[in-house]
Please model this.
Amino acid sequence: EAQVTQNPRYLITVTGKKLTVTCSQNMNHEYMSWYRQDPGLGLRQIYYSMNVEVTDKGDVPEGYKVSRKEKRNFPLILESPSPNQTSLYFCASSLRGGSMREQYFGPGTRLTVT
Amino acid sequence: DQQVKQNSPSLSVQEGRISILNCDYTNSMFDYFLWYKKYPAEGPTFLISISSIKDKNEDGRFTVFLNKSAKHLSLHIVPSQPGDSAVYFCAATQAYSGAGSYQLTFGKGTKLSVIP
Model:
């Protein structure tokens, strides 16, 4: 089954404790992206990657890191989480070319930073 | 500055009637528009899209209309069904302008409730 998976689905952590949210897709997509969804703000892009070893900042990259060492994986790293990073996070992927704008989203990771 | 605006946070419609969800954009460089649907506890799923070279695109019960001069698009659902109850996000991109085509800009979403 074609899908984007994220782990963990739920995470409660404390300020300053480094964490990684994993994202993996099995569709051989070149493009991957991370979004956060907050009440009243919709979906905002954090980082995106056009292919292996190619990443770029989205609209709200502060406090986040990403890496793209393999095509299928695109982990999101919070080196020192803060309460304002409490949010619902989505990973997405798509093909390059004609259908690349139609992104496939993972189920989401709800992060709470206390 | 919010480039994609969905000014109605919520909408209630009777089953069988038409649902009309609206979206406005300010960036004249946007040339490709998408609608996503999101159920609770799930990721958004792609619904329908339209290129700026068209003014209408239809897929079953879903039709998207684009008015470029007004920088406005709308999603029509006819007839509305209870299973359509979800949050609908409008998104836009610069599909044909190189680097910009890799980024989607989303609106805040409209929660549609279809009442049986």
